[in-house]
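For the sake of clarity, the format in which proteins appear in this thesis is described at this point. The fold follows as a row of integers, each naming the local backbone shape at the matching residue. One such record is shown here in full, so that the layout can be seen directly:
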Amino acid sequence: MDEIYLNWDKLFDEAFKIPIFDIKNDTIIFSGIGGSGIVGEIANILGLELEFKKKFKGNETLIAVSYSGTTSETIYDVNNAIAAGSEVIIITSGGKLEKLAQEKGLKLIKVPSGYQTRYAFPYLFTPLVKMVSNKRGIKIREQELKEGVSESKDKIPIDSRKLIELIINKIPVFYSSKYLSIAKRFKQEINENAKYPAFFGEIPEVNHNEIESYVHGNLLLPIVIESNDIDKITEEVLNSTIIKPYFTSDLKNITSLLVLAGITSLELAKKMDEKPEKLYNIPKARQLTTNLFHIN
């Protein structure tokens, strides 16, 4: 299954061709959760100033991302934005959100279906970044998203094996400052694909509290995704494992590090004799959430 992530350069080629919309309002609110939600947090690495508040006044644009189109929390936000008169742009592969967009005349970006959400990152991230960077007047070289994968795919399997050897029989905790959302993605991938505990924390906040837990945290494995000098303090204090980005470009680092996270999680799943696509607890949580929000 490793090729799912290593072939992201091809998915980015397809994603570049997905039609997008102009954004009307300066305030842009993002809604998404899980594998769909992380794309908004990672986009903010590029200074795109997406907001995550959920109170709508009607003078903002909501970009709602749900790969499945059935995420209850996201549908709830879309309905609230519609009621307030906000502009709504939906990125999805189908489901209830596609139907809602068609019924309400909302702006719909439909992406290819048939993937697990976490594998479909290029389809979700690319149109989001293109739209918001256009609105913000931020010039990005979109091709670097693809290059981050193609130019690192020989190194990633080697680095993932090194990480796995360290992680086995430990509980990895991923830390970063600028790349915090990538640390979160590492945690998510290991949780979902390998069914293995992992956590993340924000630097420098953890330097004022969490690092004390290592006095009695013998099972914890601190891993720092290095992004600037403040990260090096946590590295030194905890004698952390370090993930050094492959490039100087944020765009290339985003995609290459996410592929590293994905490959590491899949290889760890093999070690744990787990099937990445099998879910034990998430379906029940999703159903209970649907009931909570009364989504039909």
